[in-house]
Amino acid sequence: MTRAQWQVLTTVSAGTALLLLDVTVVNVALPAIAGDLDADFAQVQWVIDAYALTLATTLLTAGVLADRLGRRRVFVWGLLAFVATSVVCALAPDATTLDLARGAQGIGAAAMFATSLPLLADAFGPERRGFALAVWGAVTGAALALGPVVGGLLVDGPGWRWVFWLNVPVGLLLVRATLRVVAESRDPRPRRPDLPGMVLFGAAAFALTLGLVRAHADGWGAPTVVGALLAAGALAVLFVLAERRHPDPMLPPALFRVPAFTGTLVVAFAQSLALYPLFLYLAIYLQDVLGHGPTGTGLRLLPLTLVLFAVAPLSGRLTGRLPLRVPLEAGLLLIALAQLLLRAVEPGSGWEVLLPGLVVGGLAIGVISPALAAALAAAMVAVLPPERAGLASGVTNTFRQLGIATGIAALGVLFSDRVAGAPDPATGVVDGLDAIFLAATVVALAGAALAWPLLRGLRVSAASA
């Protein structure tokens, strides 16, 4: 691999890591944010969900615009928007301002995320593309896992606002690096933006998340909850109908006729829903029940990250030697095992009881992340030319972020209900953790069962054929 290719890989991976770090970096900061801004649990949930939702719902449109306007250009625009909204987040005087700024920040992140894989696909030939995607996949998994550690150090140091201030110098450095080392690329036959599809898709996802977030406080039968969930269903139907009629749909129905692509989406959604939201609830347990500070909380979650760092390179090398169904399915099964091990938490347990589950969780991410990126490339080679890589990566990353947003909201209902019905807060948190660990186990196993027949015969070699 040439020096220029290493520079592109480093710059694009770093940009992607920065935006994904902001998915989980706020987890250990939420208690401090809630105290400083006098926010309730629903408001701090939106600090994560607003970002994940706008990231998910604008990814596909950002990919279309990048194919038309230039991928490097949109990547840089995304970085600049990310930096600007990070400043607003850092200066937010109240929870509403922070939630709105996080939503805007997600749009900048979407522009970066949608262009990352296409930029790599353009810089690397078929013989090196699998390796580059495996490295990118490992970095993205590590960024999500490393977030609580970084967040803890910042909250205990200069304060929670530096979770966002840190993005400013790093983002500006990446803008300079991108303009210097990344070549421009675009689709010679760009699609037209599907604005109706983006609006309907975003509205449906927002309504679903709103209904789930409000379910605990208002009750499942409350008009706000029922109305939001019914609206989500109706908007989803309208979205499907609109996609069938649009000449250039943002989510082409034809893609779902490719079994391997559908299986990859199932894995991406199940992994994100079953694992990444748990950082929030483990952070609450470690801080509010066991009394550890933000840094102590981040460090106690570090075993997951260390195992991930050790396993991901080995997994990336094995990705080309095995059917991709093997690491993807193994990753989901390991996630299920990690959840079962975490159910050992009881009132009075020390943090050490989390260690087996964290180690297995790190192993799961290390196995699945490199394979997920490679599976996407392999699944798409038969139906999309390389210049359309933005569409494929956008769809997969959309489902990953939807998994995180849905997981935060849905698991939050289980968690809040158990806390509210417990004789004391500590018991409630432990009971809530047990409930979400069990639910996440079911999600991971269901994802593995659904994806198994769809991923048959998928190999990295297909991507380079």
TrEMBL record:
<keyword id="KW-0812">Transmembrane</keyword>
<feature type="transmembrane region" description="Helical">
    <location>
        <begin position="12"/>
        <end position="34"/>
    </location>
</feature>
<keyword id="KW-1133">Transmembrane helix</keyword>
<feature type="transmembrane region" description="Helical">
    <location>
        <begin position="105"/>
        <end position="124"/>
    </location>
</feature>
<protein>
    <submittedName>
        <fullName>MFS transporter</fullName>
    </submittedName>
</protein>
<keyword id="KW-0472">Membrane</keyword>
<feature type="transmembrane region" description="Helical">
    <location>
        <begin position="326"/>
        <end position="345"/>
    </location>
</feature>
<keyword id="KW-0813">Transport</keyword>
<feature type="transmembrane region" description="Helical">
    <location>
        <begin position="74"/>
        <end position="93"/>
    </location>
</feature>
<dbReference type="InterPro" id="IPR020846">
    <property type="entry name" value="MFS_dom"/>
</dbReference>
<dbReference type="GO" id="GO:0005886">
    <property type="term" value="C:plasma membrane"/>
</dbReference>
<feature type="transmembrane region" description="Helical">
    <location>
        <begin position="397"/>
        <end position="415"/>
    </location>
</feature>
<feature type="transmembrane region" description="Helical">
    <location>
        <begin position="162"/>
        <end position="183"/>
    </location>
</feature>
<dbReference type="InterPro" id="IPR036259">
    <property type="entry name" value="MFS_trans_sf"/>
</dbReference>
<dbReference type="InterPro" id="IPR011701">
    <property type="entry name" value="MFS"/>
</dbReference>
<feature type="transmembrane region" description="Helical">
    <location>
        <begin position="46"/>
        <end position="67"/>
    </location>
</feature>
<feature type="transmembrane region" description="Helical">
    <location>
        <begin position="254"/>
        <end position="285"/>
    </location>
</feature>
<feature type="transmembrane region" description="Helical">
    <location>
        <begin position="131"/>
        <end position="150"/>
    </location>
</feature>
<dbReference type="Pfam" id="PF07690">
    <property type="entry name" value="MFS_1"/>
</dbReference>
<feature type="transmembrane region" description="Helical">
    <location>
        <begin position="435"/>
        <end position="455"/>
    </location>
</feature>
<dbReference type="GO" id="GO:0022857">
    <property type="term" value="F:transmembrane transporter activity"/>
</dbReference>
<feature type="transmembrane region" description="Helical">
    <location>
        <begin position="220"/>
        <end position="242"/>
    </location>
</feature>
<dbReference type="InterPro" id="IPR004638">
    <property type="entry name" value="EmrB-like"/>
</dbReference>
<feature type="transmembrane region" description="Helical">
    <location>
        <begin position="297"/>
        <end position="314"/>
    </location>
</feature>
<feature type="transmembrane region" description="Helical">
    <location>
        <begin position="357"/>
        <end position="385"/>
    </location>
</feature>
<dbReference type="InterPro" id="IPR005829">
    <property type="entry name" value="Sugar_transporter_CS"/>
</dbReference>
<feature type="transmembrane region" description="Helical">
    <location>
        <begin position="195"/>
        <end position="214"/>
    </location>
</feature>
<feature type="domain" description="Major facilitator superfamily (MFS) profile">
    <location>
        <begin position="8"/>
        <end position="459"/>
    </location>
</feature>
<keyword id="KW-1003">Cell membrane</keyword>
